[in-house]
Structures are given as C-alpha cells and as structure tokens.
Amino acid sequence: MRVLKISELQEKPMDTATPIAGWTGGEVSRTRQAIIGDGQSENFRCNVVNFRVGATTGWHMHDCDQILVVTAGKGKVATEKEERDITVGDVVHIKAGERHWHGATANSPMSHITVTTVGSTSKH
Fold first, then answer.
1. pLDDT (0 to 100) of residue 24
2. Is a pLDDT exceeding 70 seen at residue 26?
3. Domain assignment present for 31
4. CB 112 within 8 A of CB 71
C-alpha cells in the first residue's frame, strides 16, 4: 500500500498541445504529477494534470476508457457532440475511442486526476 499527498508530488512539464480551433483561452501549458507511474501497477496509470489558465489538451482519443476527477479550479470537457463546464468534485468518464478535449477555462486554472490503463495510448 502507498499513501501519497498530491501537494508533495513532483511537477514535471508536459509537451505542448495543439490549441483547439477558435479557442482564445491562452497558451497550452501543463504539468503532470505521477500518482501511479509506469511500472507501479499492472492495471492502471494515474496522474494529476495541472492546466494553467486557459490551457487545454488538443483534440485526442484514447484506446481505453479515461476517468477524470477535477481536484482544483474550473474547466471544460468536450466531445464532438457536446461541451460541458466542470469543477472541483466532478467526475468525467470518457469512453475508449471517443474524440475529446479538456482543460482550464479562460479565467481559471484547473487540475484533474486522470486514470487510464497500463499500455494504453492516445492519438491526436
């Protein structure tokens, strides 16, 4: 068993993402904090992703389901069919193969925990 404090996890910069067409929220700037890193579980990967004000992922999809748990700030999550506001305590379930994006609003940073399966990949 491991017990971690998010506030004590090292933040590592992430690659930039392609901004969403028409999005004027800001520069795509994110960090990642590993909760369950590669090699630590046979089943799951789990990270905190921190989005600066206005930063989002680009459009992408995963080959496994993805769970997002918002832990700070305000954000948005969108598929090709809908766009939703999300905030602390919201849990988002994105099905494998569903094209989507998520990130902070234009006036608030946002952090979420993301859970995917070991060996899964995302496609941009």
1. 63
2. no
3. yes
4. yes
Q: Does 114 reside within a domain? A: yes
How far is it, in rounded angstroms, from Cα 74 to Cα 10? 22
Q: Give the C-alpha separation, 105 to 36, whole Å.
A: 27
The residue type of 89 is G
The pTM for the full model equals: 0.91
Tell me whether residue 106 is in a domain.
yes
User: What is the C-alpha to C-alpha distance for residues 88 and 42, in angstroms, rounded to an integer?
Assistant: 29
Instruction: Report the CATH number at residue 116.
Output: 2.60.120.10
Tally the domains of the chain: 1
CA distances from 116 to 21, 27, 106, 109 (A): 26, 25, 26, 22
**Chain segment 87-104, per-residue pLDDT in tens:** 999 999 999 999 999 999
pLDDT number for residue 113: 98
- Residue 39 makes CB contacts below 8 A (sequence gap 6+) with none
40 vs 24, more confident:
40
